[in-house]
Amino acid sequence: MRITLFDYGAGNLHSLAKALRGEGRDVRLETDARAAVDTDVLVLPGVGAFEPAARALEGGRDAMREAIIAGLPCLGICLGMQLMFDASDEGDGAGLGVFGGRVTRLRTTRTPQIGWNTIDDANDPLFGRARLATAYYANSFVCRPLDESVVTAWSTHEGDRFPAAVRAGTVVGVQFHPEKSSAPGLAFVHEYLNLISNS
Fold first, then answer.
1. C-alpha 61 chain-centroid distance
2. Nearest to 142 by CA among 118, 165, 117, 115
3. Catalytic residues
4. 143-162: burial string, b at 16+ Cβ within 10 Å, e else
5. Which of 77, 113, 146, 198 lies in disulfide reach of 46, CB 3.0 to 4.6 Å?
6. CA distances (Å), 55 to each of 58, 61, 95, 143, 195, in order?
7. Mean of pLDDT values over 111-120
8. Closest Cα partner for 199 from 171, 170, 175?
9. Main-chain dihedrals φ then ψ at residue 42, nearest 5 degrees
C-alpha cells in the first residue's frame, strides 16, 4: 500500500508517519498537491494554520479534490480535516470543498483546546473496533458542516459541540490527533488502513 502524506510545510509529520507505517505499507512525503494524489491513500496531516496550508494547495487543489471525490481514500487529521471543507475563519484561501461547510473558532472562553476529550455518539465502526472513546486534541478551530449527516462522532468543549469526525465512504476526517491518542488512536489509524486494504 502506498501512503502519501501531503506536506504543506507544517504538521506533525514524524510521529504521524510512524503511526502509518506497517507491514506492506510504504509511506512517503509529497509537497506537490498534484503529485500527492498518485497514491493508494492520501493523508492530510494536522498542526499548522489554514491559510498557509490552503496556499500550498494552490495549483493542485482541483486535481486533489477531483481525485478524492472520484474515490481516492483520504484521511484528514485536525487541520487536514479542516482543509476538506470550503473555507476557514482562521485565514484566507479555499479548502478542498469535499465536505460543504466552514471552519470557525471554538465558541468557548478558553482556546486552544489542548488535551484529552471524550468522543460522543460515535456511529462509525472504526471507533468501536479501535476502542477509541477519548482522544487528544490541540485546536482552536472546528468544522461546521452544512450537512450533519456526514458527522460520525462528536465532542464538546466548554459547551460547544463540534464534529470529532466526518466520513463519506473512504474519506475520513478527524479533529483529534490519533497519533497522539495512545494505543486506541494508533488502532484507529490501523483500522482505517485495514478498511482500505480490504475494500
1. 16
2. 165
3. 78, 177, 179
4. bebeeeebbbbbbebeeeeb
5. 77
6. 5, 9, 9, 19, 31
7. 96
8. 170
9. -100, 135
Cα–Cα dist 40/52, whole Å = 26
Distance CA 184, CA 63 (A): 33
Residues in the chain: 199
At 135, give phi and psi (nearest 5°).
-145, 165
Query: Closest Cα partner for 76 from 147, 2, 6, 156?
Result: 6
Closest by Cα among 47, 30, 18, 75 to 191: 75
CB 112 within 8 A of CB 140: yes
Closest Cα partner for 16 from 194, 191, 177, 139? 177
Instruction: Write out the three cell numbers for 195.
Output: 478498511
Peptide bond into 52 cis (omega under 30): no
Q: What pTM was estimated for this model as a whole? A: 0.96
Give the amino acid at 89. Answer: D
**36-56 residue pLDDT tens:** 999 999 999 988 899 999 999
What DSSP state is assigned to residue 89? T
Residues 160-185: tens digit of each pLDDT: 999 999 999 999 999 999 999 999 99
Any bridge partners for residue 119, and if so which? none
